[in-house]
Write a structure and sequence with these properties.
Elements: H1 10-21, H2 25-38, E1 43-49, E2 55-60, H3 67-72, H4 100-107, E3 109-115, E4 122-128, E5 131-138, E6 143-149, H5 156-160, H6 165-180, E7 187-192, E8 195-200, H7 205-213, E9 221-227, E10 232-238, E11 250-254, E12 257-259, H8 262-271, E13 284-289, E14 295-296, E15 307-308, H9 311-328, H10 394-400, E16 431-432, E17 438-439, E18 443-446, E19 450-455, E20 458-463, H11 464-482, E21 487-497, H12 500-516, E22 519-524, E23 527-534, H13 542-556, H14 561-576, H15 586-596, E24 612-616, H16 617-623
Helix pairs in contact: 1-4, 2-6, 6-12, 8-9, 11-12, 11-14, 11-15, 12-13, 12-14, 13-14
Keywords: DNA damage, DNA repair, Endonuclease, Hydrolase, Nuclease
Domain DNA mismatch repair protein S5: 209-327
Domain MutL C-terminal dimerisation: 442-584
Length: 626
């Protein structure tokens, strides 16, 4: 039997390694910008073309590299950060594996221009698919200039799975935001297709946060500060009243590195318990400084998951620090001992002479003086009091307050307003039930949630909220396809603010929003004025509605136009549908049922939830069989 185990070629091994580190264009930018920061750059320029699919360029003014270092940097496991295994537990730099440049060169065409500060000439290096094509001296500024073109050109399967430009650009911006938030002492500039998206000079941390997410956030942040021998925690948390269901800005950083940590997230949310509604999130920007020997950043290829040695103790410190911040800034409701409006308490006075109380009585009253009907002295009689005059007129008022007893008792659970009389009710038009029976009948409302109607096969129950979602979804989808949504102008336009990572998504779906009825006008800097909203959504908050639709699209990451339109229509339908507990009149129930059975799929909501069900007549008879 011949041997079957063999070594992989370097080109294949490099592509496998690249798949762990370089997942999309955002991964390339993350690695190159982190290398620039490790090189002590004070200014970093990032330029992307077609969301990084065509080209990515990262320019820094850091230390630069020599000719030998430039060539060696693209070899696997080549690094200047560590020399022995013990160095892994004393890391203070961003990159250390020595896989970033090698992984990028394995799946793209790379050009590097770099020069040391004390050298007159720099080095120009060309690579494609891990192969060095040329190396020559060149005149260039101090620092490094990386140009990455045609990402995944030699791995068609990986390139095919890249998302739409708007989605990839959103991922680039999200990765860029994580880096700029932890390095306010470095100036960053980002350009997309020659359009400037970020211009962030050196500034304090709070100003950097506002520059990324908008100045409105400044009034919402509470500072967090605690310093212990185990950990130093600093940063900001938002006020409880700013909680939202989607789109909260939540960031953890440890030793200058972004991380995801669900356990510490629970510590922050624990501090906000009973202060925000269940299911809502709060924004926070928390920075940890710990001894590198007490954390392990080498448990994930992208280094976004970090293991702490004393997680439970840090959890308690973090939760206490956030609670202290909420209490310090009076963000927690407290008892106010304000004396305004209270009665004045008289000052203590010397005791005065005590006077006995005076007793008042009727001297003419004698209970032993009886009337003549019982014998005795007829000259005396009990004083007569005209009690009847005191009750004059009360008998009539008592009869007016008696409850009206109906001729026929009505079941308590059924909404009285929704039970029609025989004279006023009109039969429903014929409709197909899920059992295929054509029926018509009256409607009743049960617990403000279900609509009950009699059908030939039994009793049909319809969930009123889900039924309305089904109806509205079909209506909004038709408006999007036909692009004839009815917009209702607002008297006072509202302003909605988005960070750059969400602006890219909003611009991609703005045409569909307009088709539904939203009229948005860009004010620059990620701000948009809502000048018009779809008709029929009165009472809803348009700012939250637009923000939720953008966040839903961002979370799903859908690229197919039909799927994006479906998500927009479903989000709007859920927000505008009648709520549970809303009492409906007979006409409203009839209109809703008629609209439901005019839909192509009345039995299920767009996300697959049951809208109606039928209790068959045989099942009802079986309940009363005994």
């Amino acid at each position: 039997m011949s041997d079957i185990i063999h070594l992989l070629p370097d080109s294949v091994a490099n592509q496998i390694a690249a798949g762990e580190v370089i997942q999309r264009p955002a991964s390339v930018i993350k690695e190159l910008v982190e290398n620039a920061i490790d090189a002590e750059a004070t200014e970093v320029h990032v330029l992307v073309t077609d969301a990084g699919k065509t080209g990515i360029q990262v320019i820094d003014n850091g230390k630069g590299m020599s000719e030998t270092d430039a060539r060696l940097a693209f070899e696997r496991h080549a690094t200047s950060k560590i020399r022995e295994a013990a160095d892994l537990f004393a890391l203070r730099t961003m990159g250390f594996r020595g896989e970033a440049l090698a992984s990028i060169a394995a799946v793209a065409e790379v050009e590097l221009k770099t020069r040391l500060a004390d050298e007159e000439l720099g080095t120009r290096l060309l690579l494609a698919g891990s192969k060095v094509e040329s190396q020559e001296p060149v005149s260039c500024p101090k620092g490094s200039n990386f140009s990455v073109k045609n990402l995944f050109f030699n791995v068609p399967a990986r390139r095919k799975f890249l998302k739409a430009n708007s989605t990839e650009l959103s991922n680039i911006l999200a990765e860029f935001e994580r880096i700029v938030l932890v390095h306010p002492d470095v100036a960053f500039y980002l350009y997309s297709n020659d359009s400037e998206l970020f211009n962030l000079p050196v500034m304090p941390l709070r100003q950097r946060i506002m520059a990324v997410f908008g100045k409105k956030l400044n009034q919402q942040l509470l500072s967090v500060e605690v310093d212990t021998t185990l950990v130093k925690i600093s940063g900001y948390v938002a006020k409880p009243e700013t909680a939202r269901k989607k789109g909260a800005h939540q960031y953890f950083f440890v030793n200058g590195r972004y991380m995801r940590h669900p356990y510490f997230h629970k510590a922050v949310m624990d501090a906000f318990e009973h202060l925000i509604p269940a299911g809502e999130q709060i924004s926070y920007f928390i920075y940890f400084e710990v001894d590198p020997a007490n954390i392990d950043v080498n448990i994930h290829p992208t280094k976004t998951e970090i293991k702490f040695e004393n997680e439970q103790a840090i959890w308690q410190i973090l939760s206490a620090a956030v609670k202290e911040s909420l209490g310090k800034f009076n963000a927690v409701p407290s008892i106010d001992f304000d004396t305004e409006g209270l009665p004045d308490i008289p000052a203590f006075e010397q005791p005065r002479p005590i006077e006995p109380p005076q007793v008042h009585y009727n001297a003419d009253f004698n209970p032993f003086k009886t009337s003549s009907s019982y014998g005795g002295d007829r000259s005396y009689s009990r004083p007569q009091t005209e009690w009847e005059s005191l009750y004059a007129g009360l008998e009539k008022a008592s009869r007016m307050n008696d409850p009206v007893v109906p001729d026929e008792p009505v079941e308590e659970e059924l909404s009285p307003a929704s039970v029609p009389s025989e004279e006023s009710s009109s039969p429903l038009p014929s409709m197909m039930s899920e059992g295929g029976n054509v029926t018509s009948g009256q409607h009743w409302q049960f617990k403000g949630r279900y609509i009950l109607t009699s059908v030939k096969s039994g009793l049909m129950l319809i969930d009123q909220h889900r039924a309305h979602v089904r109806v509205l979804f079909d209506r909004y989808m038709e408006q999007i396809r036909q692009k004839h949504g009815v917009a209702q102008g607002v008297l006072f336009p509202e302003i909605v603010q988005f960070p750059a990572s969400e602006v890219a998504v909003l611009e991609d779906i703005q045409e569909d929003l307009s088709a539904v009825g939203f009229e948005l006008t860009s004010l620059g800097g990620g701000s948009y004025a809502i000048n018009g909203v779809p008709s029929g959504i009165e009472g809803l908050k348009p700012v939250e509605l637009v923000r939720n639709m953008v966040h839903t699209t961002l979370e799903k990451g859908c690229d197919v136009k039909e799927e994006v339109q479906s998500m927009l229509a479903l989000t709007l339908a859920r927000a505008a549908a009648i709520v549970y507990g809303q009492v409906l009149s007979v006409d409203e129930m009839s209109a809703l049922v008629d609209s439901l059975f005019a839909c192509e799929s009345p039995n299920y909501t767009p996300d697959g939830r049951v809208v109606l069900t039928t209790i068959r007549e045989e099942e009802i008879e079986r309940l009363f069989a005994k």
